């Protein structure tokens, strides 16, 4: 069985949209848009292959941007990955997809293509670009026909949380293969204030009921319970139980930051997580990934530093979202602002 290591790789900042919650274009001022050269992209692939050889892993790329298809050497990269039998997912926009492009992507080895819906039509098009809601759902068909797994990801905030159940209905109707949502990370250019823990828990409760109803009806959409606070919700509702054979000090789930994931930015910066804006640890053209992993990245896996999670019985499986905590308070190890848990149910200790 192949053991993968994931690299979220931003090959360009170029994009057809200027989303209000984008970590590239939101905040105070936009940086100069960067794109890797063809030579630099080849060096990235070689560095990642070296890393995986050292740690006996197989590289898996989540290639994104901006919109990766806008990179002038995009198709050269596709051919390179195909020649090396390196699997990948694309995370981009719907605007340049059609049946022919999707068939070409499939031939090159693209397994999944992720697009976004951040509300129903009016809300999504306000966040992103007029017409993109309808176009996104239309292009799901192109991906499905080509045999590429279509993914819809939603970014949840106080602005759109009440529309998530309706988005679920739309993605099921469009025969999206995978649906998931994650939470908005404050960047300095906030479009709304944070949800309360109780508001977010209620959303999970509503979505859980919809997911189960659709699953029971045999729908083909897989509902990926991506946010780690799903673990807390399922623990409270009896759907997740602590394994009896769990070992102290082991990490079994939760955030992959510092665990089995690295982000590579368009300027070559290596980050523990792209959503943790101050998590730069090195540069891929100056440093060897295999060395960075055991040195600079270590500061993101000191699990006893979590101010709230370190005292929780779910520490090894949950830990909420450190990116949301960091974006809200500036502390990677701070409490997740949407976590509603207040007590360790085993020890009785206040969290």
UniProtKB/TrEMBL annotation:
Gene3D superfamilies: Aldolase class I (3.20.20.70). Its cofactor is [4Fe-4S] cluster. Keywords: 4Fe-4S, Iron, Iron-sulfur, Metal-binding, S-adenosyl-L-methionine. Residues 1-213 form the Radical SAM core domain. Pfam families: Radical_SAM, SPASM. InterPro entries: 4Fe4S-binding_SPASM_dom, Aldolase_TIM, PqqE-like, Radical_SAM_PqqE_MftC-like, rSAM, rSAM_ACGX, rSAM_sf. One of its GO terms (molecular function) is catalytic activity. It comes from the Bacteria. PANTHER family: PQQA PEPTIDE CYCLASE, RADICAL SAM DOMAIN PROTEIN. This is Radical SAM/SPASM domain protein, ACGX system.
């Amino acid at each position: 069985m192949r053991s993968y290591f994931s690299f979220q790789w931003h090959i360009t900042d170029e994009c057809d949209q200027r989303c209000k919650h984008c970590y590239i274009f939101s905040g105070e001022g936009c940086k100069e848009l960067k794109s890797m050269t063809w030579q630099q992209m080849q060096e990235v692939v070689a560095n990642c292959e070296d890393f995986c050889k050292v740690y006996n892993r197989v590289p898996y790329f989540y290639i994104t941007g901006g919109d990766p298809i806008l990179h002038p050497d995009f198709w050269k990269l596709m051919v390179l990955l195909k020649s090396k039998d390196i699997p990948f997912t694309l995370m981009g926009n719907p605007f340049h997809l059609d049946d022919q492009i999707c068939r070409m992507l499939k031939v090159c080895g693209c397994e999944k293509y992720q697009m976004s819906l951040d509300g129903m039509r009016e809300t999504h098009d306000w966040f992103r670009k007029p017409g993109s809601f309808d176009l996104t759902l239309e292009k799901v068909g192109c991906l499905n026909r080509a045999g590429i797994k279509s993914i819809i990801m939603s970014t949840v905030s106080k602005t759109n949380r009440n529309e998530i159940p309706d988005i679920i209905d739309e993605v099921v109707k469009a025969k999206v293969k995978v649906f998931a949502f994650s939470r908005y990370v404050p960047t300095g250019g906030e479009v709304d204030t944070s949800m309360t823990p109780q508001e977010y828990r209620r959303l999970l409760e509503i979505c859980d009921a919809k997911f189960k109803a659709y699953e029971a009806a045999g729908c083909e959409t897989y509902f990926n319970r991506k946010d780690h606070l799903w673990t807390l919700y399922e623990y409270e509702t009896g759907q997740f139980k602590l394994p009896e054979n769990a070992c102290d000090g082991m990490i079994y789930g939760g955030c992959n930051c510092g665990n089995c994931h690295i982000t590579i930015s368009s300027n070559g910066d290596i980050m523990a997580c792209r959503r943790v804006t101050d998590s730069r640890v090195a540069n891929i053209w100056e440093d060897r990934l295999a060395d960075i992993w055991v040195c600079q990245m270590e500061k993101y896996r000191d699990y006893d530093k979590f101010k709230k999670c370190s005292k929780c019985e779910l520490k090894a499986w949950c830990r909420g979202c450190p990116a949301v905590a960091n974006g809200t308070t500036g502390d990677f190890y701070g409490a997740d602002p949407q976590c509603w848990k207040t007590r360790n149910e085993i020890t009785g200790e206040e969290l």
